[in-house]
Amino acid sequence: MNISDVAKATGLPAKTIRYYEDIGLIYPTRGDNGYRVFADTDVHKLAFLGRARALGFSIEDCRTLLALYEDDSRASADVKAVAEEHLSQIGDKIAQLEAMRDTLRTLVQSCAGDARPDCPILKDLARG
Amino acid sequence: MNISDVAKATGLPAKTIRYYEDIGLIYPTRGDNGYRVFADTDVHKLAFLGRARALGFSIEDCRTLLALYEDDSRASADVKAVAEEHLSQIGDKIAQLEAMRDTLRTLVQSCAGDARPDCPILKDLARG
DNA sequence: ATAAGGGTTCCAGTCACTGGAAGGTCAAGG
DNA sequence: CCTTGACCTTCCAGTGACTGGAACCCTTAT
Q1: Which residues of B are less than 8 Å from A12 in CB distance?
Q2: pTM for the full predicted model
Q3: Within 13 Å of residue B54, how many CA atoms lie on the same side as its CB?
Q4: Nearest CA to A57 among A36, A29, A87?
Q5: pLDDT for the residue numbered A127
Q6: CB burial class (10 A; 0-12, 13-18, 19+) of residue A72?
Q7: B3-CA/C17-C1' distance, Å
Q8: pLDDT, tens digit, 9 for 90 and up, residues A41-98
Q9: From the CB of residue B35, how many other CB atoms can be counted at a distance below 10 Å?
Q10: Which residues 27-86 of B are in CB contact (within 8 Å) with A?
Q11: Is the Cβ–Cβ distance between B46 and B40 less than 8 Å?
């Protein structure tokens, strides 16, 4: 399989697949013409990475998860720990964004949004 | 005022203040020794920027907001438009994170988290 | 022979800083 | 006058995870 076939199969851009090889997440072989040749295991790994990234795991987390996935003697506790840590960080980020949203929503609601210069949003930013 | 005084006054790191000058958000003057000299207006602007950034506005949004702030003939509608657009993007990001959180939470709950290798999290990632 | 549509590498840019090196300036103390 | 320490300066590189683009090679069909 060439790179564009793999891109179609996994939904990942070819650029991203090359990048994942660069940083050592996958190791496709090479054909005589220098083209990357992807085995089923590579495609499988890339699909795994795509789903892990879609869940917001960092590349380093993905590396860890992939290593755990390939380690038959792993402890599920190790996987769970990575996921729980990520879950907690997602929670933190949501809380932060919600705080911003609440403040912003209040400000937006209080702004007339007309042709006059008077604006509570700017007033708030000018001295919180 | 020298840069470290301004840093204390605004809560922004000196590095960030220099960066804001680099990208043309502020224009402190210079003393004979080459040191930046900050006027009250500069400090005021930096505090404005700090609060806008804390609400998640991009630097480009901040530039726009600052320009509007300094334009006495602005229309509050223009400010409101920037804020509403940002508010909507925050909403999108929250929704995305909440989707991740829901999926992840379910996966984490279903994982025993013990010494055995069997793991529903990896199973899910391996073929979603 | 050529053109289209693959593939390759490498460099630069994104965003908003942040760290660090190398060096100039200033005020206080000996 | 000299030194020490705390300032300040500029410039370069790195962050995360790609993404765009240039320049060039390979394959297949016409």
Answers
A1: none
A2: 0.93
A3: 15
A4: A87
A5: 87
A6: exposed
A7: 17
A8: 999 999 999 999 999 999 999 999 999 999 999 999 999 999 999 999 999 999 999 9
A9: 12
A10: 44, 47-48, 51-52, 54-56, 65, 68-69, 71-77, 79-81, 83-84, 86
A11: no
